[in-house]
Design brief:
Layout (H helix, E strand, L loop, with lengths): L12 E3 L2 E3 L10 E5 L1 H6 L5 H11 L7 E4 L18 E7 L3 H4 L8 E6 L2 E14 L6 E12 L2 E12 L2 E2 L4 H6 L7 E3 L1 E15 L2 E20 L2 E22 L2 E17 L4 E21 L2 E20 L2 E21 L9 E13 L5 E13 L2 E12 L3 H5 L3 E2 L3 E5 L4 E5 L2 E2 L8 E15 L4 E17 L6 H6 L4 E3 L5 E4 L4 E17 L8 E17 L7 E2 L11 E11 L2 E10 L2 E3 L11 E3 L2 E16 L5 E11 L8 E3 L19 E9 L1
Parallel strand pairs: 4-6
Antiparallel strand pairs: 1-2, 3-5, 5-6, 7-8, 7-40, 8-9, 9-12, 10-11, 12-13, 13-14, 14-15, 15-16, 16-17, 17-18, 18-19, 19-20, 20-21, 21-26, 22-25, 23-24, 26-27, 27-30, 28-29, 30-31, 31-32, 31-33, 33-34, 34-37, 35-36, 36-39, 37-38, 38-40
Length: about 675
């Protein structure tokens, strides 16, 4: 039965002289699509985290998928993201009902990572990236050690990188459009170091885990303020620790954990700011069978989290301290209403119900409800629907992340009708309140069918958000009137800075229709090829940024504007020692209005934009060593933005738009990256 937990199905069952044994790592729901070793290798990813990002894009999984390991929820899926992809035996994209079975929001998808029983590797990676126009280089080096022995895993990794600055004087078009800007940096110089380790150890029927992740980064840039050049420096450091255990307790499968994080940021130059953020949280997850229905067992999932976060910000000699507590509790049930059998035409039907309670200091908190229904009338045909209503607290990161300056950005100032370079202010906003969200989604998918493993899907989603937490919209006149404190201007009224920390937007409504198509011809000798196409059609996107202000139709150009249609095409192939990956994207042009509700000659009209990324890989078998072991090496050539496309725009009256010269929005353009990875 597809509803059984993998451990509950491992015992052999005699049936008319045949032994039936569940597949190792089987999940609570059957896979919709499965990737074997050849398909995983064709992704040409360095680690499992990169592979998951590619799989989510290729299979149109929407928001970040829920990741389980060997058919089970784990305390911290991030512990496995640094392993090499060939540590995977297979990856399963589970059918839509899996989200409810694992206690997640029914609108999300679930990926099941099935690890090999035994695996060991020592890997290093060296890479260099340069834009073909020159002026900048990025050097990076990685090293890692990974081990798997049954349920025990070990992984250690370290990464160091160095980036040189890209100065305006190294871009002729930028120098021409911005006289006297030669010394400013279009991209900062920086250095970074990161290290992580994770342990998962079986002790009897329980598994303990430990994860540590640290990172340090420094950046340096030069900007212009009132004709003066100012050097800015930024230092960021963070350390995260997670400990936990999981096992069986009183009939429940239980996961317990504690995690803590400490980070600090120091800024100098344009502003002198020092900030620290610290948090500690306890988490609980549990699931079990509660009833046995005619179609299978009903499953209950319980999860909770309590956290305390604090921040200290010192700016201008004034120190500000803030502390916040949050508590979240979610309970869900997943019940099979029907099961495919010769006696019924219904197929598989699964209903999931959920309820949540959220509390946070300084906010009202709230409750939430969700429901999902999945119907599989035929093994290759699936329908699903989901509804949810929730009052969500801002995350600790949204409220308490250190205040930092982002990379220099060129924006169009509608008040002055000119393009300016700014350093955006990023970080958390402790004043954020909770958001209320109503969401409905309907979807249908079919496949894989035919020898070409053809699959297709279509989904509709409608959402209404009140007091939603999001980024500051494009800096139009209406946005500045609503949030004047977020715009920094000098004595002449010139825009010099934008505070882009998250805000509460009064209301936002959206409706979109998405579709996807995937196929791959049958190939021999372990070769693999997969092509996927996705399309997003925004039917509605409207917002009210503050109470008392008019409704903004973003598809018409109000409040920053948004593209109506987007397309993406991806290809992943492998033949022998060669691999190839292609990613193409197209975005329909759109308008950004200067004044709400009407088109005008001072609007921005962004052009259609298309880009293509190409990656080629070659696996090289090196001679055997004296101990009989063989070392492998892989060389990859990656070209981002193969045709050197740049965003373009015109004014509503047809004239050239300031801030949209060749190097304004994207001074890097085409970037070539050469990577050498080896296993020893």
């Amino acid at each position: 039965m597809p509803w059984l937990h993998s451990d509950e199905a491992t015992a052999p069952t005699p049936v008319a002289g045949v032994e039936v044994v569940a597949r190792r790592g089987a999940a609570k729901a059957p896979p919709e699509t499965e990737l074997g070793e050849a398909q995983i290798d064709a992704l040409d990813a360095y680690d499992i985290g990169e592979a998951i990002d590619r799989i989510a894009a290729v299979h149109a999984l929407g928001q970040g998928p829920v990741v389980i390991v060997n058919g089970r929820r784990v305390l911290n899926a991030a512990d496995y993201m640094g392993f090499p992809p060939d540590a995977l035996d297979r990856v399963e994209v589970l059918r839509p009902e899996a989200a409810g079975l694992y206690g997640a929001d029914p609108s999300r998808r679930v990926l099941n990572l099935v690890l090999k029983r035994r695996f060991g590797s020592r890997d290093v990676r060296l890479s260099e990236a340069r834009p073909t126009d020159g002026g900048r280089s990025v050097l990076a080096a990685d090293a890692r050690r990974a081990l798997i022995a049954g349920d025990d895993t070990r992984q250690f990794g370290a990464r160091v990188s160095r980036e040189t600055a890209l100065r305006a004087g190294e871009r002729d078009a930028y120098r021409r459009d911005h006289p006297g800007a030669d010394a400013i940096t279009l991209r900062p110089a920086g250095r970074a170091f990161g290290a992580n380790l994770s342990f998962n150890q079986a002790i009897g029927d329980w598994t303990t885990s430990l994860g540590v992740n640290g990172r340090a980064q420094t950046d340096r840039s030069t900007s212009r303020r009132q004709e003066a050049l100012i050097d800015s420096r930024r230092r960021l450091r963070s350390l995260a620790l997670t400990v936990g255990a999981g096992g069986e307790l009183a009939g429940w499968s239980v996961r317990l954990g504690v995690d803590g994080q400490l980070s600090d940021a120091v800024l100098s130059g344009v502003s002198e700011t020092a900030s620290t953020s610290r948090s500690i949280a306890a988490t609980l997850g549990a699931d079990r069978r509660v009833l046995t229905l005619p179609a299978g067992p009903m499953l209950a999932n319980l999860s909770g989290r309590m956290s305390r976060t604090g921040s200290t910000v010192e700016a201008g000699g004034v120190e500000t301290r803030r502390t916040g507590d949050t508590a979240d509790l979610r309970v869900s049930l997943a019940a099979p209403l029907a099961r495919a059998s010769p006696d019924t035409w219904l197929g598989d039907v699964v209903l999931s119900l959920g309820a949540s309670l959220r509390r946070a200091s300084g906010t009202a908190g709230g409750t939430g409800m969700s429901a999902g229904l999945s119907w599989t009338p035929l093994p290759k045909l699936r329908f699903n629907g989901a509804w949810s209503r929730a009052a969500d607290n801002p995350t600790n990161a949204q409220r308490f992340d250190p205040v930092v300056l982002g990379e220099p950005t060129v924006v169009f100032d509608f008040r002055k009708g000119q393009a300016v370079e700014i350093l955006p202010i990023l970080g958390g906003n402790p004043a954020l309140g909770p958001q209320e969200t109503d969401r409905v989604s309907l979807g249908a998918s079919a496949g894989p069918v035919t020898p070409w493993t053809l699959s297709a899907g279509v989904a509709f989603e409608a959402a209404s958000v009140t007091d939603g937490v999001g980024a500051l919209p494009a800096p139009t006149l209406a946005v500045e009137a609503a949030f004047p404190e977020r715009f920094q201007r000098d004595g002449e009224g010139r825009l010099v800075g934008l505070d882009q920390r998250p805000i509460n937007i009064r209301s936002d409504r959206s409706r979109l229709l998405s579709s996807n198509l995937g196929f791959g011809p049958p190939l021999r000798d372990g070769s693999s090829l997969r092509v996927s196409l996705t399309h997003t059609w925004r039917l509605e996107s409207a917002t009210v940024i503050r109470e008392g202000l008019p409704r903004m139709d973003r598809l018409a150009g109000d409040g920053g504007g948004v593209s109506r249609h987007e397309l993406a095409a991806m290809l992943d192939g492998r033949r022998g020692r060669w691999s190839a990956n292609l990613t193409g994207r197209w975005r329909q042009g759109y308008r950004i209005r200067r004044d709400v509700g009407r088109d005008g000659p001072d609007d921005l009209r962004l052009s259609d934009f298309a880009s293509l990324d190409l990656k080629l890989g070659l696996l090289m078998r090196l001679p055997e060593r004296g101990d009989g072991r063989r070392a492998d090496a892989r060389i990859s050539l990656e070209i981002e933005n193969l045709f050197d496309a740049r965003p373009g725009a015109r004014l509503g009256g047809g004239g050239a738009a300031p801030g949209y010269g060749r190097d304004d929005q994207d001074p890097l353009g085409r970037v070539v990256r050469l990577t050498l990875a080896g296993r020893f």
